[in-house]
Amino acid sequence: MRENLACVSSQSMAFTDCMTPTDLSTERKGITRKNWRNRIGFFLKTNTSQSILHPMKNRSYRPTADDVQQWAQSLDKLLSHKYGKTVFCIFLKSEFCEENIEFWTACEEFRNITSHTELASKANSIYEEFIKSEAPKEINLDFHTKNAIVQTLHEPTVTSFLAAQRKAYSLMENNAYPRFIYSDLYKELCAAARGEGKAH
């Protein structure tokens, strides 16, 4: 019950890597698959600064058919592509299960921090948002992994969340990623990208 409540409450929160404020008003009304399809079609067919996807702002680049096909090779290839990650974020949000990608992304940012003060601050922020019991976007972790994180919070290192990040990645790789790749939505992305040809 608590997980369902957390999931429902998280649906109205912004995922700034993926969505603009305009898009969030639609989000609050609830996402339907049709709306999702409309967004992805728009994603592939526009190259203006008015794009519905924030990372594309002021960019003229669109994913090619090859780009989109490579996303099916592995989760790593999907996440390493800027727009592939964005599309996957929207897909996860449409299924109300975006907490793992948000946690994974936060961990990637955390690992690049060099300031000890900033590292400690970010570690506490990640813990409060994703790890502790009843966290707003609590991810599914076993007791030992959670406990190991708690033990490092007073003196965090760049690897403090590594085990948890790997677990979140594994969950996405084995569950959400295959659903994304075999979804009609991904097939439509492939078709739309092929329709665009090699235009940039």
Number of strands: 0
User: Segments where pLDDT lies below 50 for 5+ residues?
Assistant: 1-32, 46-60, 196-200
- What is the radius of gyration computed over CA atoms, rounded to a whole number of angstroms? 18 Å
Strand-residue proportion: under 5%
N- to C-terminal separation? 47 Å
Give the overall shape, derived from the CA principal axes.
elongated
| Helix percentage range | 55-70%
The SS-based structural class is mainly alpha
Order of helices and strands: HHHHHHHHHHH
Ordered list of secondary-structure elements with their pairings:
Layout: H1 2-10, H2 21-28, H3 33-45, H4 65-70, H5 75-80, H6 82-94, H7 99-111, H8 116-131, H9 143-152, H10 162-181, H11 184-196
Helix pairs in contact: 3-11, 7-8, 7-10
Verbal overview:
The protein has helices spanning 2-10, 21-28, 33-45, 65-70, 75-80, 82-94, 99-111, 116-131, 143-152, 162-181, 184-196. The protein is mostly helical and 200 residues long. It starts with a helix and ends with a helix.
Question: Which keywords apply here?
Answer:
mainly alpha; 11 helices; disordered N terminus; disordered C terminus
Question: What's the short version?
Answer:
With 200 residues, this protein is mostly helical. It is built from eleven helices and no strands.
